[in-house]
Task: structure prediction
Amino acid sequence: MIWGALESCYDPEIWEANIVELGLIYDVRYDEKTGIAQIKMTLTSPHCPVGEQILEQVRQNVGSVQGVKEVSIDLTFEPPWSLERIKPEVRRKLRLNW
Result:
């Protein structure tokens, strides 16, 4: 359910692929007992101009999943995001073949 919520989040600059397909999600953990969803993720760059919008989408969408009481986001830039993190089929769709 949480992965599905994340798949409905998009970088407003790249509408052709969701943040999961772009490889922005590094880890997801959910504690049923506390209702805390922990998301470890990155952005395409530390200076991403729409970073706050993306994080807010994650908070809203994951927070709307039944049983989730709190969304904790660990924003990291280690390892740094690169085009290689994009799923191959999405790279083809975005015409990023090399």
About this structure: The chain has one domain: 2-78.
